[in-house]
Amino acid sequence: MRGRTGTTDEGLSPLARRTPDGPPPAPTVQRIRLRYTKRGRLRFTSHRDFQRAFERALRRSAVPMAYSAGFTPHPKVSYANAAPTGTASEAEYLEIGLAERRDPEALRRQLDESLPPGLDVTEAVEVATSNFVERLEASEWLLRLPGVAPAEAEKAAAVFLAAEAVEVQRMTKNGLRTSDARAAVAAIGLAPADTALVGIGDNTGTDGADDVRTGAPCAILRLVVRHATPAVRPDDVLSGLRSTADLAPPVPAEVTRLAQGPLDEQTGTVTDPLALDRAAAEVGR
Amino acid sequence: MTVESVFPRLEALLPHVQKPIQYVGGELNSTVKDWDSCDVRWALMYPDAYEVGLPNQGTMILYEVLNEREGVLAERSYSVWPDLEALMREHGVPQFTVDAHRPIKAFDVFGLSFSTELGYTNMLTALDLAGIPLNAADRTVDDPVVLAGGHAAFNPEPIADFIDAAVIGDGEQAVLDITDIVRAWKAEGRPGGRDELLLRLARTGGVYIPRFYDVEYLADGRIGRVVPNRPGVPWRVSKHTVMDLDEWPYPKQPLVPLAETVHERMSVEIFRGCTRGCRFCQAGMITRPVRERSITGIGEMVEKGLKATGFEEVGLLSLSSADHSEIADITKGLADRYAEDKVGLSLPSTRVDAFNIDLANELSRNGRRSGLTFAPEGGSERIRKVINKMVSEEDLINTVAAAYGNGWRQVKLYFMCGLPTETDEDVLQIGTMAKNVIAKGREVTGTNDVRCTVSIGGFVPKPHTPFQWAPQLSAEATDERLTKLRDSIRGDRKFGKNIGFRYHDGKPGIIEGLLSRGDRRIGAVIRAVYEDGGRFDGWREHFSYDRWIASAEQGLAGTGVDVDWYTTRERSYEEVLPWDHLDSGLDKDWLWEDWQDALEEVEVEDCRWTPCFDCGVCPQMDTHIQVGPTGKKLLPLTVVNS
């Protein structure tokens, strides 16, 4: 951590915990799963940044949150599998616990209005099932490669797919880590034409110039990656494309997560992780 | 002329830098106005990292005041970290605003707020990245007016080469007045160019334009006199004072960043100014008189601000928050109102003697305890008389007893080292005080597990204070004294383990001292440091004492003066001080008498509850003390969920 000039701190160990007086916090009576986005320039939001922003949005819109016990009660929010900083996403998920029941759609609208444009809440479903995180088996990604010709990208993808294994290295907090990028990839190829500018380029800021694009060629790859341990991220696949097929984009790729959820191995597609909860909600109606 | 956003070019660099979110803007409650429908455009910069600059109240207030005006636009800029600076230089991306990512050079006024002198090198980085000549003399009509404000601007002489103008005092009305002058000059077709605009600003008497003053030096290196070199330019420039804070309820819509910053709370300035008369305190001297915000005004700002931000803490800001005439009703009222909402309250600056048991209770009611911090400033009774910090050890111990008795088990005490007339014994008394605090805490709580953290800063004499003549203690002597104190605390078996010790080494203080009481000759030093790579001098890992010392030798060569001359030298009554022509309202003779009183250990009362002692501010500035009580109450609000 950075510190102010010249300060030396000879700290003390924390004090023993005490428990607060008064009644325990109100219990959770309803849980809601939300899907949200990280678009445009707000893709540079880190997960911690998003958490703070989201919890403030909960306060601004007076959502009746359930809280944990203790002197510093925390609202009950659990986040699943956040996209890396700098990566746009159309499909992030979290779950909140409420102390009073609310209509999911009304709550979604309220929260969406309270969050800055780019952090958009796009779906809300009452929780009826467990094992949500386990259902997030894979992610579908879009990789925009400005300055790369589509044919070149298509060829590289084919070379990558044909490889037995593609070892890639990444610098992590615990040093250099090696993994097989090929094994985690369920599908890779040129994206259908209609997916061109999802995520990255939409104008979430107010500059009005975000989506100014040059006339240069731009390949767009669609990628489906299984969630494994250790995780293989889109940049790992990009380094794999570089090492196996010499694909070296002149500027950083713009990466967007389009979906995450159960993987249909037959078609190589990712399906809706909220489908089960949605179905349960229909039945209950 | 439409100005293009640099964002597309910046965006390509962001994947390669740390914490890119700090450069993208789009904060909740930020404003982007249409460039072409505004005729006066301000870029406001806090010349430190975003995480420090964003929460700055001054910048936030001016941003909102200006943007509320029709036809006026204000955008914010912060210092970029060296990783992005290198990339911006490589790719030719200029210093930008975070709001619409417009290049700084396109604005009419580039206003920088200096809370501390350690931001000067960052200003040079920003100017250079912006493509604005570093020397004010080299700028053309196409460059913005570079304007300095903030507390450090009360002595802008060290940066006189680099700024076009400085404003001292409260900025709210001042920025609007400057806006009107810029607007009229532009509407007339910029007659007389840059020079004419600066002259119009200078002639108001409220904007200091360094180039319109010549500094003459004596053979011994001291200043002979400072003389205006243009007709109509006043001999002295006055500070600005806003009298009714309730008329300026800013920020109404505080900015809520996505990136993490140093203060994340809803801050309300509950009063401005302080007449306690602590002799070391520049803020207390230059912001006189005291002007309170009313209890109802505070209540409204808190309510609207929490709604607009979603913050979970309210900070009641001022130089000495417990001194508000209705502080008990304010804290109780707020604690009542937000009892259910898990909103914490904090009083960042609290005097030992004004703190009382009720206040402690209200602050702790919601369970959140941000800890208790008091500032006795001096360890011995004697030194506290010298600095006019009228707190007895008995006051402190009583206050601490009340705090421990109410459930706190951790108390933090702020002190200074290097005060005028200070001896080793005065500093060692800090340790004794901490031990007495622990002993009292143990007695009150019946447990040995109570904590006291002692935090010590080096004293830096500041302009416009009674200590402006005082010699600063050398870095070596400061470090020696702190080592003695540290050893005496650590060596104590009974209490040592319960006392935390936090201190600053003496070196940064010497550089701060050089910049605080420097004159125009220091400009060459700042420039040399910048050119040698000096940045972010307020940050431990960037600050280099050796670089400053080497640059000072280079920059001051041939002047006959050196770092010691500026810092550890005592000034005499007759000496013309570099800031004498900047009028803070304080009468120089009164400051001198107060300095003499300090040496004789004579205390001065607070003019809020004793007769005026003629510091000079009110008659000179045509202001007066404005305090309550109003007798009004903070009514509980019912939150309506629609």
UniProtKB/TrEMBL annotation, chain A:
<feature type="compositionally biased region" description="Polar residues">
    <location>
        <begin position="1"/>
        <end position="10"/>
    </location>
</feature>
<dbReference type="Pfam" id="PF10105">
    <property type="entry name" value="DUF2344"/>
</dbReference>
<dbReference type="InterPro" id="IPR018768">
    <property type="entry name" value="DUF2344"/>
</dbReference>
<protein>
    <submittedName>
        <fullName>Radical SAM protein</fullName>
    </submittedName>
</protein>
<feature type="region of interest" description="Disordered">
    <location>
        <begin position="1"/>
        <end position="28"/>
    </location>
</feature>
<feature type="domain" description="DUF2344">
    <location>
        <begin position="31"/>
        <end position="234"/>
    </location>
</feature>
Automatic annotation (TrEMBL), chain B:
<dbReference type="InterPro" id="IPR045784">
    <property type="entry name" value="Radical_SAM_N2"/>
</dbReference>
<dbReference type="InterPro" id="IPR006638">
    <property type="entry name" value="Elp3/MiaA/NifB-like_rSAM"/>
</dbReference>
<protein>
    <submittedName>
        <fullName>B12-binding domain-containing radical SAM protein</fullName>
    </submittedName>
</protein>
<dbReference type="InterPro" id="IPR007197">
    <property type="entry name" value="rSAM"/>
</dbReference>
<feature type="domain" description="Radical SAM core">
    <location>
        <begin position="260"/>
        <end position="498"/>
    </location>
</feature>
<dbReference type="Pfam" id="PF04055">
    <property type="entry name" value="Radical_SAM"/>
</dbReference>
<dbReference type="GO" id="GO:0003824">
    <property type="term" value="F:catalytic activity"/>
</dbReference>
<dbReference type="GO" id="GO:0051536">
    <property type="term" value="F:iron-sulfur cluster binding"/>
</dbReference>
<dbReference type="InterPro" id="IPR023862">
    <property type="entry name" value="CHP03960_rSAM"/>
</dbReference>
<dbReference type="InterPro" id="IPR058240">
    <property type="entry name" value="rSAM_sf"/>
</dbReference>
<dbReference type="InterPro" id="IPR023404">
    <property type="entry name" value="rSAM_horseshoe"/>
</dbReference>
<dbReference type="Pfam" id="PF19864">
    <property type="entry name" value="Radical_SAM_N2"/>
</dbReference>
